[in-house]
Amino acid sequence: VHEHSSRIDGPFVAVNCAAIPESMLEAVLFGHVKGAFTGATNSQSGKFEEANGGTILFDEIGEMSPAVQAKLLRVL
């Protein structure tokens, strides 16, 4: 789908939701700033920012908790 869309020149970012620990999923998707949580030694962009202008694929989205799915729905 990405290769035949108007966003072909943008990045394709695949997110395997089952492979990301529940405690880190929000930080991976939305990014974080340095010191936001224990172990956040630097700021990091999230998958949404990385996919800007391109396509993002959520694989195994059913493995996300309902709370994180609700946050994702608000973004979409």
TrEMBL record:
Residues 1-76 form the Sigma-54 factor interaction domain. It comes from the Bacteria. Keywords: ATP-binding, Nucleotide-binding. PROSITE patterns: SIGMA54_INTERACT_2 (PS00676), SIGMA54_INTERACT_4 (PS50045). GO terms for molecular function: ATP binding. CDD domains: AAA (cd00009). The keyword Nucleotide-binding applies. GO terms for biological process: regulation of DNA-templated transcription. It comes from Vibrio parahaemolyticus. The keyword Ubl conjugation does not apply. The lineage of its organism: Bacteria, Pseudomonadati, Pseudomonadota, Gammaproteobacteria, Vibrionales. This is Sigma 54-interacting transcriptional regulator.
